[in-house]
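User: Run a structure prediction on this.
Assistant: Running it now.
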Amino acid sequence: MEVNETSTKGGLENIKHVILVLSGKGGVGKSTVATQLALTLRNAGQKVGILDVDLCGPSIPRMLNVQGRDVHQCSAGWVPVYADAEQRLSVMSIGFLLGNNDEAVVWRGPKKNAMIKQFLTDVYWGHLDYLIIDTPPGTSDEHITVIENLQELKPEGAVLVTTPQGVAIGDVRREITFCRKTKIPIIGIVENMSGFICPHCAECSNVFSKGGGEALAKQCNVPFLGCIPLDPMLAKTLEDGQNFIDLFPVSNTLKSLQNIAVMITEQQNIRD
């Protein structure tokens, strides 16, 4: 796979809002939040794109059931893969460029950075209401590359994802410091895996702790967007590449996701 290191600015000009999904900790559900946020916004009538810059763990194509699709070229650049018939949800991921699902990306920093820059400049998204950027965990080269290339567009900011446990909270606190040092606005914190939804009776039990994300938001003076429970049905639909929103339209988990999306869009409407 060739990486073009001299890319020029591509199709980002026609995107109204750019939102990064960040966390200092791996395994807290960034990709889950990114996909469900994108699907919720799409169902609310928005035109949405997801850019998966987690080069070593590209899970977005599987979650949206678009594995194995081909990326095509047009005169304006790469054409993203559409995840729905109406072409209101588009996706770009390195997963589309690998030979097979078991292929590993064994690259040093400069090549990773060049690939991310190419994703940010050479993909022709067309007109979008929202571009959701799913990032790898941490505060590394990949994040700095994304932020440097987005500065001109003045992105709306970052949604920070954590789980309730203290270990994850500590890493997300460092992510807040990273955002402030790089002047990325913080849209708010989402507490994922907050309670367990029983698939039989729908009762919510606090298998882990609860409230860590909300406490961190208060301590750091950033908005708290809400909690997403640990829901086996959500996990299964993501594994199977199915749309949780369509299959479970009256679930409490969906209500949580919709409330988070409303809080995010309300912030953007105020800024507009």
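The chain is about 35% helix and 20% strand.
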